[in-house]
Amino acid sequence: MTHTTPTLDIVALGEAMVEFNQRPHEHADDAPLYLQGFGGDTSNAAIAAARAGARVAYLTRLGTDRWGDRLMDLWQRENVDTTPVQRDAQSPTGMYFVSHDAQGHHFSYARAGSAASRMQVQDLAHWAEPIANSQWLHLSGISLAISATACDTAFAAMAQARSSDTRVALDSNLRLSLWPLARAQACIRHAVSLCDLFLPSLEDMTALTGLTQAQDIISWSHAQGAAQVVLKLGAEGALASDGHKQHQIPGHMVQAVDATGAGDCFAGNLLARLSAGDDLWAATAYANAAAALSVQGYGAVAPLPTREAVLEMLHTPSKGTPA
Predict the structure, then answer these.
(1) Model pTM?
(2) What is the rounded CA–CA span in Å between residue 46 and residue 218?
(3) Of 25, 57, 90, 297, whose CB is crowded by the most CB atoms within 10 A?
(4) Structural domains of the chain in order of their starting residue, each with its CATH number
């Protein structure tokens, strides 16, 4: 089955959640204040891609609660197609809290038994058409980790994409609070073998494979079956490889305040530019600039940049400190 004119650029599969992000204290003994927003890695990536101009749909389950309604409203405002979203009256929409200290940002989750974790392979009856009519299916390690049935659903969606000539992108997004390391290693390794584009981070890959050198991680990723690999290096930028040549995109100098969702911003913008026809190198440079912009604001969604902001950054000399 081959589609000739996709009606979508990207469909993303995973869990969206309500976010409560800690704001900075004026005094050390102040009670923490939290800004309510939204998150969930593949949802963040979908919104980032839509802001970059891509045609995007989201595949998930939500509770029939108020928070699920708010997420539906968010996607509709952001031009993300919600037609495939399934509502589950038996389970809540998940949420999480982000706190900040000198060591960085830390996550606390309230997602056990969430609607998204109840995804089933049968949900593909609703999702096969958008997958087949898209250039890319985007998933992550979290899409696989939230439950065994969600993992099965993710693998079935990847198989559906491959049979439909839809390319598959996978972000490693390792969260060991969600599943044991041995299961994460086995499932992510299998997922890499099914993807066309793998988006690992250095930290994730060291935990998954024990490898610490960028070149070794690139080689491992290609050996598992990924044709293209973009290794995210934080403040150092990103290293992109198509299996024949590599190119390192340097980081931007910015005033970073919150790295929540930066990798998701990177993924969404990268896929948006690949969908628009950019080559891997140009798309990586664009995504790198977008992620640098995103760390200058609080929360996963609010700081996601528009295309105009990214283009301005690409043509402006860097200032400040490393992101």
Answers:
(1) 0.91
(2) 25
(3) 57
(4) 8-314 (3.40.1190.20)
